[in-house]
């Protein structure tokens, strides 16, 4: 119990953002902008996004769409140079990995199951910027996942030192 209390100590406390160079903040901020653009375009074309999730075989597509959009927006906030609660930033990091991992696994699954040529969109941006799932979308989503991991690695140790 004491270990758990020490781990969560300060999670509700507002803390300064991690100490990164301006170039590293630009890289992180661009990643945050990408997550926001994805979420906003999915919101604007919500019915198309929900239909895409249904086409790829995801149960409860409306619920899943809302969860993905909220997770993308929450994840995006952690990549900006804002004073946030430590717990909020930690959950943001987790959601960023989960969301980018979802897009990687989903596109890899579509390609491996042979559905790559049958769909007109990879779903990244809802009904906009349609790109048929294929090896290029797998590479794009892998780059997004590695970019997230790299950016989070820049802040390694921040969550324990900030307390």
Q: Could you list some keywords that capture this structure?
A:
mainly alpha, 163 residues, elongated, 7 helices
Commentary on this structure:
With 163 residues, the protein is mostly helical. The chain has one domain. Helix content is 66%, strand content 2%. It has seven helices and two strands. The chain has helices spanning 2-8, 22-44, 46-55, 61-77, 86-112, 135-154, 158-161; strands at 14-15, 84-85. Helix 2 runs antiparallel to helix 4 (61-77) and helix 5 runs antiparallel to helix 6 (135-154).
Euclidean distance between termini CA atoms: 18 Å
- Could you name the ranges where pLDDT drops below 50 across 5 or more consecutive residues? none
| Overall 3D shape | elongated
Cα Rg: 17 Å
Count of the separate structural domains: 1
SS element count, helices: 7
Elements, N to C (H/E): HEHHHEHHH
Largest sheet: 2 strands, antiparallel
Mean pLDDT: 85
Task: Find the count of extended strands (DSSP E, 2+ residues).
Answer: 2
Query: What is the beta-strand fraction?
Result: under 5%
The main sheet orders its strands as 1-2
Structural class, from helix and strand content?
A: mainly alpha
Helix content: 55-70%
